[in-house]
Amino acid sequence: MHIAVIGSGYVGLPTACGLASFGNDVVCIDNNPEKLKVLQSGTIPLYEDGLQELYEKIKSNLTFTGDMSVIKDAELIILAVGTPMSDDGSANLEYIYQATQDIKPYLKSGTIVATKSTVPIGTNDEIERIINRTDVTVVSMPEFLREGYALQDFFNPDRIIIGTDNVDAYNKIKALYSPHIPAEKIIRTNRHSAELIKYASNAFLATKIHFINEISDLCEQIDADVADVAAGMGLDSRIGRKFLNAGIGYGGSCFPKDTNALEYMAKQHGVNLGLVSSTIKGNHDRRFNIANRINKYISEIGSDARVAVLGLAFKNGTDDIRYSPAIDIIKNICHTPIYVYDPRAMANSKKELKENVIFTETFADCIKDADIIVILTEWPDFKELENVEFNKKTLILDYRNILEESKMRKKANVEYKRIGQKL
Ligand SMILES: NC(=O)c1ccc[n+]([C@@H]2O[C@H](COP(=O)([O-])OP(=O)(O)OC[C@H]3O[C@@H](n4cnc5c(N)ncnc54)[C@H](O)[C@@H]3O)[C@@H](O)[C@H]2O)c1
To answer: Hey, what long-range contacts does 150-153 have (CB within 8 A, 24 or more apart)?
Structure first.
């Protein structure tokens, strides 16, 4: 199939590479000239496990361009442009509507336009109105991939939702995936349901994270351990263990903006999503609460404390720092300098963190001579701390609970604190 993917970002690139690996002829279009230059030189300009390697294998099926007219042969056009958060919490739809205007002159009869961008209920109706053609079908096809696992999720998705009343369009998209993905995972709904499935899923997962963080706060007051509580809860198959890791709150380009957009659109329809509102507020407050905790420990040690922060990305496996709690926490640590390190997110963070921060070359440079080490992203690399010998008194604040407690408690010169244990 001839496929065009509009937007070469965290969603567009894995999608384009994945579809090209199925043998399709894929063109990926982006309007960012700098990004395009890198892509056309053969480099994937973001970090996603295995993506560069996959691109090397399938590059004869995939081209990158900024020239929209190349979509004239495409039978399927996938919209994967950003829908960032506006100041009022709603989804900013300027890019999706601009992309719709951009493709409009080149659409051939019978083309399917599938929206993978996360868009509020009714956005695909508006895309259809802008295109204004009875021979073009607009489908909602929300994306559920997780950054850091994008290819794994592309090739083994939990589900593919195809939101359309047009059975022919559904069958064409299904045929694209069904040789590779079990048929029972491919579901047709109407467009509004498909749009809402995405928001409801993200809001549910965000709420689960916020819930365990609240339980974690209670654990800290009553001498319970949130890790044990989560393990015990998670064994209940109705609950499940995933997304029950207490920590510093969720971030990233999806949960914050999607919970806000859902709250906003529900209000527009006169519906109060109290649970979602409480999650948004609680998660926002959490990063400042964590910064205050760190400030308290630093003040106990003194103004000459050497402070090391491990982790800048919003989670492990990515270089993405959008709405990263680590970035906000660092901005709210009242100390200078703060030594920071992240295995992948240093370049992006240098644009965001300018004051009070020293970016170290290596993990070892970051923790060297530290009085306090704070873990803010759950990179497995930081488990190396379990093997480090500390020759001066060091406070380790493991705010992602990634280190093996029994090892850390035995370490000479180390005071080890985790999230969700008696303070
Ligand atoms: N990142 C994720 O993990 C994830 C997961 C599921 C869904 N989503 C959703 O997918 C959408 C894309 O997210 P992303 O993280 O890939 O965004 P991104 O910012 O990484 O990529 C978007 C790309 O679109 C390009 N673009 C914008 N307007 C364009 C136009 N008119 N023509 C051509 N290119 C254009 C930008 O230059 C950019 O490269 C969002 O709606 C997001 O909510 C993201």
So the answer is: 150/10, 150/11, 150/14, 150/48, 150/49, 150/51, 151/14, 151/17, 151/18, 151/48, 151/49, 151/50, 151/51, 151/54
What are the pLDDT digits (tens) for 142-163? 999 999 999 999 999 999 999 9
Does 334 participate in catalysis according to the annotation?
no
Classified by CATH at the fold level, domain 190-423 comes out as Rossmann fold (3.40.50)
Tell which CATH architecture fits domain 2-188.
3-Layer(aba) Sandwich (3.40)
Give the whole-angstrom CA distance, residue 162 versus residue 186: 7
Pick the atom of ligand 1 nearest to 13's CA. Answer: 16
**Interval 308-328: pLDDT, tens:** 999 999 999 999 999 999 999
Task: Judge whether residue 355 has pLDDT over 90.
Answer: no
Ligand 1 site: residues with CB under 6 angstroms? 6-12, 29-32, 35, 80-83, 95, 98-99, 102, 116-118, 143, 145, 147, 253-254
Selected catalytic residue, list 28, 254, 334, 366: 254
Q: What is the pTM of this model?
A: 0.95
| Residue 236: its H or E element | none
* Range with the poorest average pLDDT among 131-135, 339-343, 419-423: 419-423
Give me the residue spans of the domains in the chain: 2-188, 190-423
